[in-house]
Structure formats: structure tokens, C-alpha cells
What we know:
Layout: E1 9-12, H1 15-20, E2 23-28, H2 40-53, E3 58-63, H3 68-80, E4 83-88, H4 96-103, E5 107-110, H5 112-117, H6 124-131, E6 135-137, H7 144-151, H8 153-159, H9 162-165, E7 172-177, H10 181-190, E8 196-200, H11 208-216, E9 221-225, H12 236-249, H13 258-270, E10 279-284, H14 291-294
Parallel strand pairs: 2-10, 3-4, 3-6, 4-5, 7-8, 7-10, 8-9
Antiparallel strand pairs: 1-2
Helix pairs in contact: 2-7, 3-4, 7-10, 8-10, 10-11
Bound molecules: pyridoxal-5'-phosphate (PLP).
Amino acid sequence: MPCLPIAPLQPLRLDWLDDAGVEVAVLRLDLIDPLISGNKWFKLEPYWHLAQARGRSGLISLGGAYSNHLHALAAAGLRFGFETVGLLRGHPQVTPTVMDLQAFGMQLHWLGYAGYRQRHAPGFWDTWTEQYPQLYPVPEGGGGAPGAQGCAAIVAQARAQLGELGWDDYHGWWLACGTGTTLAGLVLAEAGAHPVYGAMAVPPGHGVVENVEALVGTGGYGLFEASRGGFAKVDEALKQFLAESEAASRVPWEPVYTAKALLALQAQVETGLFKRGTRIVFVHTGGLQGRRQALA
Ligand SMILES: Cc1ncc(COP(=O)(O)O)c(C=O)c1O
């Protein structure tokens, strides 16, 4: 995969931020590419380098029928000419994402629900690496240490653009978490210089805390519940917040990760977590392909 495209850093203007005197700039990873969008390029690039170093001709990974991760992986495979295989949760179904995966040339295998639950079991990958010895395995969501190291590059992208906003510094980061890999990358790059706040789009017990701890230990970040009752659960209040935020900010949001993260930020701003004059970089982690189904 060639060099990472640069994401623009833009001021985010919303009434509730102005009222609290909190300044937010949004790092628009959703704009880096029409298909390999958001945090995905950052997470996938190190895996592609590992695959090349081992003489492999592609990547194999896993996810659900709406997976942003598989979508970006399949698009990257098509764009940069490497083979991709996707192991899917559940039974065969047709979603806009699945249709894209097929159109992008990804080979799909449906594991069922019980089969997918085995993904963390020892030996899970053995069958697949026997069947596809030419491919390098990528954990769910592009997680793990290589994915986090790839995401560390996000910090430099924002820092390089602070001057254009008239900022000489910032006080912290805010972003959505699914596995916590992206947050871990920011924590690595910051090395304690600024705190990184994660809004968990998955409910408690889904491993974010453990994943982040395994990658970076316990310091330099804070995690907030943001799932609103379940991963990908979309309620009316969220839909309305998304529509209003989109109209006011002219930034596109999706309900599964980014709008939940923004709503969780609003809750913390309103409870006074940040004093007046605080400057936050919000990472727009992409996922807009998922709007087709999540808002349907
Ligand atoms: C759009 C979007 N935002 C945020 C995340 C969460 O990223 P991470 O799994 O690195 O916490 C994901 C999932 O990978 C995602 O698809």
C-alpha cells in the first residue's frame, strides 16, 4: 500500500461546544479516500508490510456483514492488487457491504455464529492458514500491536496542521472505540503528552479495556461508555442528534461509531469534564459506508 494520504483538520462548530467554551477540531480521516476510509488504512498498512516481508500475496481477516474493516480491506486489495479473503459472522446474507465485498473480489466464507465465536480460540487460524498459506492473517477490526502502531501516525497528521487553526497546542483527543486499537495507537504516539479519551461503541465486557491495557498499559487515556445499549443499536434520539449535528457542522456522521462518540462528548462537555478554553482533536474514524444500512 502506498504512503498514507493526509486527513484535513477542520474546526467543528456546534452550539453546545460554543456554550461551554470548548474548541474542537475534527481530523477528517473519512476524507482520506472514498473507499479505504477512516482509521482503516492506518491499521491495515502494517499488516500489508508484514505480509510482504513474509512473501505472502494477500490478507485474510474477519468481521460482520456490515464490517467497515472488511470493506476497506477488500477495497485495498482491489486497488493495490492483492488477494483478500473475508471470514464472516453468521449465515450468508446480502447487505450493501457484502455486495461490495464480492464486487471488490474478496473471497467470502460464512462461519455461522458459533463458528465465529471461536475466533479467539487457540488453533482457530490453523485451518485457514492451511487453506490459504499465501495469505497473512489480520485480527478482527485490524486489531493488535501492528494495527496500533499504524494508528500512531494519526497524531503527526493532526499536529502538522495545528498552525492552520491558529492553535499552538491541544489538550487531548476524543474518538470512538470498537477494539480500542486506534486509541492505543494515539496513546503510543502521545507517550503521555496529551490524554486520549475513547468513547466505547461496544458495551462493557466486549474487551476494549483489556485490549487497550494489553497494548499500552493503564496510563494516558480514559474510556467512556457510549454504546447506548448495544453495538450498532440506533435509537431515535441518536438519529435526531446525528441529523442535527450534520446540519449544524456540515460533517457527515454515521450512527455506529462517530455519532455515538460525538454524543458521548456532548455528555462529558455538559457535565464539565473540560474547562473553558480546552482544545480537543476529535478523530473522525470514517465508517460512512455503514450509513447505507445503519440508517435504513
Ligand atoms: C468507523 C469506525 N470508527 C471507529 C472504529 C473503532 O476502531 P478501533 O477498533 O480501533 O477501536 C471502527 C472499527 O474499527 C470503525 O469502523
